[in-house]
Amino acid sequence: MRKILIASVLILGLVGFVFASGSSESSGSSAKAPLTLMQNKPEIGAALTAYGAEWTKTSGIPITIKSIGGTSNGLGQQLKADYAAGDMPDIFVIQGPQDYKQWESVLQDMSNQKWVAETSVPFKENGKVYGFPVSIEGWGLAYNADLLAKAGVDPKTLDNYAAYKAAFEKINSMKAQLGINAVVSMAASSQMSWVVTDHDMNALLSNGLPYDDLSVVKALLAGKVDASRMQQYANWVELMFKYANQTILTTGDYNAQVNAFATQKTVFLHQGNWVDPNMKQAGVTFKMAFAPYGSLNATTDGIFVSAPSWYVVNKDSKNVAGAEKFLNDMVFTKAGQDFIVKKADMIPAFKNIDLQPSGQLSQSVQAWMKAGKIYAWNQYQFTLNFRQQILGPIYNQFATGQINEAKFIQLMTSAFENQKS
Amino acid sequence: MFALFFRRARDARSLLKGARPAGRRRVLKQDKSGKLVFWVFLTPVLFAFVMVMIIPFFLGVFYSFTDWSSSAGSGAGLKFVGLGNFTQSFQDPAFLFSFIITFVYTFINVLVLNITALILSLIATSRLRLRNLYRAGFFVPNLIGGLILGYIWQFIFNNAIPALGGFLANPENLVLRHPGTSILALVAVGTWQYAGYIMMIYVAAIEGVPQELYEAATIDGAKSFERFRYITVPMIAQAFTITLFLTLVNSFKQFDVNVSLTAGGPSTIFMGKPIYATELLALHIYNTAFTGDHLAMGQARAVVFFIVLVVISTIQVRASKKREIEA
Predict the structure, then answer these.
(1) Which CATH number fits domain A34-136+307-351: 1.20.1560.10, 3.50.50.60, 3.40.190.10, 3.40.50.2300?
(2) Topology (CATH level 3) of domain A139-305+373-417
(3) Cβ neighbours of residue B257 closer than 8 Å, sequence gap 6 or more
(4) CATH 3.40.190.10 occupies which residues in chain A?
(5) Which of B176, B182, B211, B270 has the fewest CB atoms within 10 Å, measured from its CB?
(6) d(CA A381, CA A262)
(7) Sign of the alpha-carbon torsion through B7, B10, B16, B21
(8) Which residues of B13-39 are buried (b: 16+ CB within 10 A; e: fewer)?
C-alpha cells in the first residue's frame, strides 16, 4: 500500500514536471495586471521592447512585447493559435478590413480615447474607432538621385506611363556608363509575392483616385473588371518586369532586392520607406527619394501612403485601462514620441508629434504627405488567400516569362471574376 | 515501515514452515513491484503522448467535418458540414497537383537517396584509408536542421552557381526558376540531408555480413561486382525494408526544406489554374490552413494525407517483409 502511495506521488510529480510550463495567470487586481503586446514588425522589435521596459518603470504596469515577422502572416497564425488556447494578447496588430473581420468580436471600441483627435488614419468600422495607427508608411519607386542625374532624367517628370517607358529605355541603354546591371530592383518570386500582390496591385486599385475612393475596389470585389484600367495596369507590370534584374525578379528574396539598390546596381527600387534601416546598415551615402508613381496613361503625381497596421486592444483583457494607457502614453509622452520617431525611425501618424525621422525615404514620404499628393492602400480589402495563393502565381508566371501580357490580363480578369474568398 | 517489517516477519515464518508457499508469494511480490516500477516510469510519457498526439488526432478528425476557423469573427460558431471539406478538396486543382508532385518527388527522392546512401556505405566500409573520416563527414549534414539547409542551398543555387559564369550565369538558367529543375533541387537537398543517416543503417547491415562468405566467393573467382550482387544485397535485405520505409515516409512529409528552399516555388498552370509548382503536401496543407484561413479544410486534407501515408507505408513494409522471408 505504501509503495503504491509513493509510486503515485512520483507519477504525479513527473507528470507535473512535464506540463509545468503553463502560464500563471491568476485573477489578480486588474489595475496592475501584466500586459502582453504582440506585433509584426521585427525591425522595430528591439526598440519597442526597450520602450516597453521603460514604460513599465514609469507606469508600474508590467508589459511584455512579442515580435513575430519576416514571414507572411506569421502574426495571424500565432493569434489563431493563441485564440484557440484562450491566451490572446492584450494589445495586438491588425492590418486592414480582412483582419478586422477575423477578430471583430474581441476588439475594444476606442472612440473615446484622447489620441483619436490627433490622427487622420485611425481604423474605423461602423463609425467606431478600433485601431491605433502604428505609423505612417509610404511606398513607390525609390530612385538613386545621383545615378538619375547622371542619366539625365528628371524625377519630377516621371508622372505617367509614357514618361517612365522613355526613361527606362534611356537608362537601360546607359547601363555600362552608370555601372548598373538593371534599371529597377523588383521581386516576384513566391516568397516575395507581397511586393506585387500587396503593393504594386494598388496601381490597379487606387492610383489616380481620391484617397477615400473605393469605387474600383468595390467593382473588383463584385467581379467587374474595367478592361481599359486592367490593360494599363498590365502594361505597367510588363514594363517593370522587362527592365528588372531577372535573377532578383524570379528568385530573389528581400535582402537581395534591397541590397541591389543599396550597392548601386539598380537605379530604382520598388519598396517602401521601411527599408531605411536596411540602407543605414548598408552604409548608403547617395541621395534617394520617391518618384511619382506614374503607372497610368494619365498623369498621377503621388505615391501610396497609409497606416500599414493598427494596434487594437483585446476587450476581454484583464487590464483594458492599462492597455489604453499604453497607447495614449505613446502619443502624449516625450518617451513615447521619442520611441516612435527617433528609436523606431517611423513616421508618426499624429499631428501633435513634430519630430522628424532620420531616414531619407521617410522624409520623402513626409514631404509627399505634406503636399497632400497621396493615394490609398487598398490591398487589404482582399483576403490574404486571394492575394498570395491566387494572384501570386499569376504574377510569377508573367515574371518568369511563361505567359505573355494578353494571357496575364485574361488570368487576372478571371481570378477577379471568380473569387470566392 | 511497520507493515514492511510485518511482511518480512511473516515471510520468515512461512519460510520456516515450508519453502514453496513462501517462494510463490515472494515471486508474486517481486513481479508486482517490477510492474509498479514499469508503470511509474511509463505513465508520464504515456500521458504526454496521449495528450499531445492521440487526443489532438481525434479532435482533428472531428474538426475536419466542421467549418472550424479559430477566429473571433462575428457569426463564427461551429457548423457541421459533413464531407463537404473532403469533396471540395478533391475538386481543388492546387490540392490535386500537390498530391501528384509529392508522389513524383517521393519516387525520385527514394531512388536517389537509397542509391547514394548505398554507394556512400560501400565507401565507408571499404579498405580506403580515410574511411572513418568519410563516415563522420557524410553524417554531418543530417545534424543541420532542414530549414538552415534550405537557405544555404538557396544561396548556392541563386548566387554561388551563377557566379561560376558562362552558361550558368544567365538568369534564364537558374535552377530555382523552372518547376522541373526546382523539384530536382528539392531532391538534391533532401538527399544531401538524409544520405548520411541512411548510410549508417546500410553500414551497420554490411558490417553484419560474415567475412567467410566473401573469402569463399573470392576463392571461387567471383569479381567484386558479383560479390556485391550475390552476397551483400541479399544479406542486407532487412536493411532495405527499414531504409525504404524511412525514406518513403520522410520524403512524403518533407516540409522544412521545401519552405526554405522554394517556399512553393515557381508557378505553373494546372487544370487551367495558375498555382505554385513545388508546394509539397505538407506545405500545401499549412498554406491552406493558415494563409488561406481555412483551418477545417486544411485539417481535412491532413486526414487524407494521413490515410494515404498509412496505406502506402503498410503496403511497402508488407512487400519488403515478404521478400525478406523468401531471401
Answers:
(1) 3.40.190.10
(2) D-Maltodextrin-Binding Protein; domain 2 (3.40.190)
(3) B146, B147, B149, B150, B186, B189, B190, B193
(4) 34-136+307-351, 139-305+373-417
(5) B211
(6) 32
(7) negative
(8) ebeeeeeeebeeeeeeeeeeeeebeee
A-contacting residues in B 141-170 (Cβ below 8 Å): 154, 157-158, 162
Question: Partners of A119 in the beta sheet?
Answer: A350
ipTM topping 0.85 = no
Q: Look up residue A231 and give its three cell numbers.
A: 490593360
Average pLDDT over residues B75-99: 85
Contacts of A73 in chain B (CB under 8 A): 290-291
Determine whether A301 is exposed, middle or buried from the number of CB atoms within 10 Å of its CB (0-12, 13-18, 19+): middle
B295 touches chain A (CB under 8 A): yes
Interchain pair B43, A15: CB under 8 A: yes
3-state secondary structure of B80: strand
Q: Using CA atoms, how far apart are residues B305 and B82, in angstroms rounded to an integer?
A: 18
Cell matching residue A214? 473605393
CATH 3.30.465.10 fits B85-326, yes or no: no
pTM for this entry? 0.80
B94 and A CB contact within 8 Å? yes
What is the tens place of the pLDDT at every residue in A300-311?
888 999 888 899
